[in-house]
Amino acid sequence: MGGKSYRVLIVDDSKSVLSVLSEAFKESPFQVITTDSPLRAYEIIEKEPVDIVISDIEMPDMNGLDLLKKIKAHNGMIKVIIITGYITVNNTLNAFRYGAEDLFFKPVNPEMIVSAAAVAAERLERVRSLLTQAAMHKGKK
Fold this sequence. Notes:
The protein is 48% helix and 18% strand. By secondary structure, the chain is of the alpha/beta class. It has one domain: Rossmann fold, CATH 3.40.50.
């Protein structure tokens, strides 16, 4: 994952999910921020650099799919992984339609979420490397 430490924001109204997932990330190179509020999550994204968001769908105040759309409109580079206990074809299709990187049904396997974040970070690394190459070639026609 290059030399960069990626920032992961975990959003779930369940405190137990937040603690299980943040614990799973302890051994990883990721910096983790957690919140139980999707509105607070969006405030964090507007103010601080966040690379990857892991979000529940069914939450009070704003659902995770609306949060996903807002995140992508704000910064399309942020990778979003959806986790949900509310399993429907609609939720699944919409998550990918709105730009989710991956989706997991609850109860989640924390290790799978960490490895999905690692895959998302590799994609970000690839895009950054392409942008660097493109910037270097800009002046050379």
